[in-house]
Amino acid sequence: MSVRCQVTGKKPGYGNQVSHSHHKTRRRWLPNVQNKRYWLPAENRWIRLRVSTKGMKTIEKRGIDAVVADMRARGERI
């Protein structure tokens, strides 16, 4: 399963790990993605989302109904 936030679309970042001697090796930075359940009052059911912590803050600010509507407009399956 990919490490991707369903709300914000955050994915792993890629780059180099640079040692003290400047030896460079490839690495990736994973987003802080959590499995979380949200109550959807409009549909009277629970939904389970893989969201980053920034996605959780977005849901707190805008509300779960508005976020789910945007996700469905993008074609995301819920």
TrEMBL record:
Q: A single Pfam family, by name?
A: Ribosomal_L28
Query: Cross-referenced InterPro entries, in alphabetical order?
Result: Ribosomal_bL28 (IPR026569), Ribosomal_bL28/bL31-like_sf (IPR034704), Ribosomal_bL28_bact-type (IPR001383), Ribosomal_bL28_sf (IPR037147)
Q: Which residues lie within the region annotated Disordered?
A: 1-26
Record's keyword annotation contains Ribonucleoprotein? yes
**GO CC, any one term:** ribosome
Keyword Ribosomal protein found: yes
Sorted alphabetically, which keywords does the UniProt record give? Ribonucleoprotein, Ribosomal protein
What the record says about family reads: Belongs to the bacterial ribosomal protein bL28 family.
Question: NCBIfam families of this UniProt entry?
Answer: L28
Please report the name of this protein according to its UniProt entry.
Large ribosomal subunit protein bL28
Task: Please tell me the species this chain comes from.
Answer: Saccharopolyspora mangrovi
Gene name per UniProt = rpmB
